[in-house]
Amino acid sequence: MLRDLTDCGQAPVGTSGRPRSRRRRGAGIVPGVEIADDTFIVAAPDDVAAVVADPTRWRRWWPDLDLAVARDRGPAGIIWAVHGSLDGEMEIWLEPVADGVVLHYLVRADTADPRPERVRERRTRDWKRHAHLLKDELEAGREPGLPRRPAVKEGGLTAE
User: Fold this and answer.
1) Where are the domains of the chain?
2) Nearest to 131 by CA among 23, 52, 46
3) Taking 70 as the threshold, does the pLDDT of residue 43 lie above it?
4) How confident is the model at residue 101 (pLDDT cuts 50, 70, 90)?
5) Is 0.90 topped by the overall pTM?
6) Cβ-based neighbours of 150, under 8 Å, separated by 6 or more
7) Looking at the DSSP assignment, which residues form a beta bridge with residue 108?
8) Which of 89, 82, 112, 105 is closest to 19 using CA atoms?
9) Which residues of 114-138 are buried (b: 16+ CB within 10 A; e: fewer)?
10) Which of 23, 28, 31, 70 has minimal Cβ neighbours within 10 Å of its Cβ?
11) d(CA 92, CA 102)
12) Spatial distance between the Cα atoms of 35 and 61, rounded to a whole number of angstroms
């Protein structure tokens, strides 16, 4: 499920002539790029959390960003401070549901790009591709409609 959280209008131009990536909406300032995406994965919550906590995955998912863990929420996910082509905050929140996990991906950031809507669309598509690859990896071997595979402990032994 994808949710577009921003206006479709262009970013206003600042006094320097350079587009500002934040737009005013009501009384507050809205980041130029906001993304909220949810993906259901039929896998053990600990297995999904282990992948999300792996910094080598972060480099694969977001090669152009410098990430600093702002809050490690353990099995509930991670919040990062983000710098690079985006500046702001990014979060993966893991919500156990039924026999799987809803992986919530949230981005609230600014960009120097004068067309933040393009950045948002590209990043949303890129993330959804990574989320589906992760889903395929963690659900491998499970027939649709059947329960999830047992959780994997370190050393390859099942936890259930």
Assistant:
1) 37-141
2) 52
3) yes
4) very high
5) no
6) 44, 158, 159, 160
7) 34, 89
8) 112
9) eebbebbeebbeebeeebeebbeeb
10) 28
11) 10
12) 15
Task: Give buried/exposed letters for 55-83 (b at 16+ CB in 10 A, else e).
Answer: eeebeebbeebebeeeeebeebbbbbebe
Task: Taking each helix axis as running N to C, give the angle between helix 45-52 and helix 116-138, from 0 to 180 degrees, rounded to the nearest 10.
Answer: 130
**Position 116: which residue type?**
P
Which structure tokens are listed for 97? 């549901």
At 147, the pLDDT band (50, 70, 90 cuts) reads confident
Give the Cα separation of 136 and 148 in Å (integer). Answer: 12
From residue 137, alpha-carbon distances to 27, 61, 109, 129 in Å are 44, 15, 29, 12
Which pLDDT score, from 0 to 100, does residue 145 have?
79
DSSP state of 16: T
Distance CA 92, CA 111 (A): 20
Tens digit of each residue's pLDDT (9 = 90 or more) over 55-99: 999 999 999 999 999 999 999 999 999 999 999 999 999 999 999
Residue 49 and residue 159 in contact, taking contact as beta carbons nearer than 8 Å: no
Domain 37-141 - what CATH class?
A: alpha beta
